[in-house]
Write a structure and sequence with these properties.
Elements lengths: L1 H9 L5 H4 L2 H12 L37 H7 L4 H17 L16 E3 L2 E3 L1 H16 L7 E4 L5 H8 L5 E6 L1 H12 L9 E3 L2 H8 L5 E6 H6 L1 H8 L5 E5 L7 H11 L5 E8 L1 E3 L12 E4 L10 E8 L4 E8 L1
Parallel strand pairs: 3-4, 3-7, 4-6, 5-6, 7-8
Antiparallel strand pairs: 1-2, 8-12, 9-10, 11-12
Helix pairs in contact: 1-8, 6-7
Length: 327
Amino acid sequence: TKDNLNIAINKLGTSKKEQQSDIWKRAIKINYQNKKIKLNQLEKFKGLSEPPTKKNITHYVSSNFPYLHLRNIIKDFFKLNSIKIKLILLIQYKLFRKLNIKFPKFNREYKNFYYNFEGYSFNSNLVKYASFIINQKRFINEKKINTLEIGAGYGGLCEVSLINKIASKYIIIDLNETLSISMNYLCNSNELIKIPKIYFEKEKIKDEIKGLDNYIVFISVNDYLQNKDYIVKIFSKEIKMIFNSSSFSEMAPNVFDDYVNFIEKFNDVYLYSSNSRTRYDYGGCNAKDGSNIIFQGKDLRLNKKWKKIYSSIEYQINEHTFIGYLG
């Protein structure tokens, strides 16, 4: 895995396809200069919509979330300085722990972006990921929710899902730029040492996952584009949920529609989307109808008949959550 990680890191800034993304056009130069990734410098990498920084508290748990109605009281009462941010997060941490949500053990090497609460790591990213875990437990009645995540950021949700045994097998599809970050983070997670980590290569993947009870598979967008049907064939019996947070709404309409077609090749699968309620034109990208609205969370443009299990809108953070099932 370390050899594959080095290969992926050395590819930073080399993929023309990936550089077509507006986000990465602004980020390539900085990321390319930071090829030698250090865990405590992850926040230096540009392009992550949710960087792993302990000072970022822009995400508040939805008011629809049944266990944290204190959110609005806390938000209105405190100003966002570092001490009070820590207190807000500590309250949220305590509530999640009462709900038996586990978090990664604290490592001083992560001190730049995690707080140390009772020996465990916690920040605003983990507030969001823990709320995803709770929603999965509430609405998806499966023993193991093995997951394919499209756009995994730095890998935080993957780590929390595996620690909490929500999933035993986890697949990440991402731009090589971001994949290099999540690979580095997850390969160095003390919580996941015993879990095999595999970089997708079509010629090897079938043999590499054979007989494994758990694994993390990393798939670059370039490999995904060339092997969509093969990915479905290899993993369709394993995957129970396809997950996306934030990045669907960042995609050009044709890229998003391509992912929808890919997702709907799976059967007996759940889709969990947590994305912007509305995303307007940026970078000269127009919707098919010519409007400047390129994404709406309430309309995922699904082709097949999905059973809606859960849907909610959080207007304060412009976010729409959808959980559906395709039989």
